[in-house]
């Protein structure tokens, strides 16, 4: 983005340069439009005074490009005007050379119309030349001319900023009376308009001194080659060396031009078509037709990791009972169904001693629990197997050994009794006594207070 001047005008790119300042294409943040901004390059008092005079000029006319607003920032000042895209008459001559007479008459009529508005404000332009006459980019349509650059203009009666022996302006477009040091007047601007008309018709810069000398020595010459006689009479009336013999007002010259146009031959065809191009070129990066383009975040770079291949659907497997002790998705375990209780079996009779008489063993009481606990694979963690239920032997019978688990496995050992949580009594009793003592001291302190 460009530099923001005075918090309002964003300078984008330079589009021209004058004697006292550079012209920039700028974006007006308040009015939301593109403007031309002329920035003062010199900071001396003389240039600043001329700058103030120029920006104070306010002329509202379709063929006048006058300053619209101004701003100052530290030691820099600028004023703005409408942005004109078609370049100047110098660009047009550079593209086409000599222009068709009817096209020149259209441009001269607009130039005299704008100059009449300037003179109506009592202002003498003093620097009319092709580079200060701008064009809108109208393409092949009717041209639209605008008179610009009032840097050395002055109002009649205002004090001059230069001495009487010093002439300001562009060499080659001075009126004879300007070279003699006379006060600026409206006919001097009309003489410059005549030189501009000759430039458009011939496609080259005229020699004003040789032209004035010829007028003074031989009077009004005949029409040059390629210029219709009716149009030449109007141009010659603007180029008279004597200001008294020249057109006195822009409106008078405009009326004479309208009469001359009626006598011009009809246009010849396609060769008379002139197109006014856009001379500014495209906007820099970051700017669009509606103003600065907002900055957007860059798009994410796609990952180079190949996409996983799609897994084809598989047919559901036949339903089978889950294997015991298999982990599920949540980390729990599927328990096998509990075994059914076995029917009571009579214990095997113990062998009787040889000396004693054989007696039938006492029957074992029925227990609803299996002889052995669940298999170790499905026993929950931290859960001990239930001990076998002891039965009292019958009187006179020999003690029976604990029954072995089904399947011939070894009997599980009897688990040790679990320890109750908490500190042992040897620690807990002193701690409780100490707490009671502290409690008693606290009550005593409260009562004593």
Automatic annotation (TrEMBL):
Domain Protein kinase: 9-264
Composition bias, Low complexity: 374-405
InterPro entries membership: Kinase-like_dom_sf, Prot_kinase_dom, Ser/Thr_kinase_AS
EC numbers, comma separated: 2.7.11.1
Keyword ATP-binding in annotation: yes
Transmembrane segment boundaries: 427-447
UniProt xrefs under PANTHER family: MITOGEN-ACTIVATED PROTEIN KINASE KINASE KINASE 20-RELATED, SERINE_THREONINE-PROTEIN KINASE NEKL-3
Protein name: non-specific serine/threonine protein kinase
Gene source species: Streptomyces rubrolavendulae
């Amino acid at each position: 983005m460009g530099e923001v001047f005075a918090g309002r005008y964003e300078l984008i790119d330079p589009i021209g340069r004058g004697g006292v300042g550079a012209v920039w294409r700028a974006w007006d943040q308040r009015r939301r439009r593109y403007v031309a901004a002329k920035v003062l390059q010199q900071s001396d008092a003389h240039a600043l005074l001329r700058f103030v005079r120029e920006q104070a000029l306010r002329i509202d006319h379709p063929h006048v490009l006058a300053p619209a607003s101004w701003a100052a920032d530290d030691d820099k000042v600028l004023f703005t005007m409408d942005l004109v895209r078609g370049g100047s008459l110098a660009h047009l001559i550079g593209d086409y050379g000599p222009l068709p007479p009817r096209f020149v008459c259209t441009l001269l009529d607009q130039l005299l119309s704008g100059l009449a508005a300037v003179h109506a404000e009592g202002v003498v332009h003093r620097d009319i030349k092709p580079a200060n006459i701008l064009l809108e980019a109208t393409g092949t349509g009717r041209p639209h001319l605008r008179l610009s650059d009032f840097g050395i203009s002055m109002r009649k009666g205002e004090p001059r900023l230069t001495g009487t022996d010093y002439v300001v302006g562009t060499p080659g477009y001075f009126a004879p009376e300007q070279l003699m040091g006379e006060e600026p007047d409206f006919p001097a601007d009309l003489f410059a308009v005549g030189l501009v008309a000759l430039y458009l018709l011939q496609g080259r810069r005229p020699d004003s001194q040789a032209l004035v000398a010829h007028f003074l020595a031989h009077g009004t010459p005949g029409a040059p080659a390629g210029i219709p006689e009716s149009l030449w009479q109007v141009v010659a009336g603007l180029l008279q060396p004597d200001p008294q013999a020249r057109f006195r007002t822009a409106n008078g010259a405009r009326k004479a031009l309208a009469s001359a146009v009626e006598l011009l031959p009809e246009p010849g065809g396609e060769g008379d078509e002139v197109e006014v191009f856009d001379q500014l070129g495209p906007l820099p990066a970051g700017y669009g037709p509606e103003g600065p383009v907002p900055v957007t975040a860059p798009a994410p770079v796609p990952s180079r990791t190949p996409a996983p291949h799609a897994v084809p659907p598989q047919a559901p497997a036949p339903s089978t009972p889950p294997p015991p002790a298999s982990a599920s998705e949540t980390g729990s375990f599927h328990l096998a169904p509990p075994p059914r209780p076995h029917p009571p079996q009579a214990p095997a009779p113990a062998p009787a001693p040889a000396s004693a008489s054989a007696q039938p063993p006492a029957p074992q009481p029925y227990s609803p629990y299996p002889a052995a606990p669940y298999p170790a694979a499905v026993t929950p963690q931290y859960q001990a197997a239930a001990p076998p239920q002891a039965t009292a032997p019958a009187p006179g019978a020999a003690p029976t050994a604990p029954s072995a688990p089904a399947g011939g496995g070894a009997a599980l050992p009897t688990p040790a009794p679990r320890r109750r949580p908490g500190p042992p009594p040897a620690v807990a009793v002193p701690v409780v006594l100490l707490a009671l003592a502290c409690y008693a001291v606290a009550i005593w302190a409260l009562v004593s207070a």
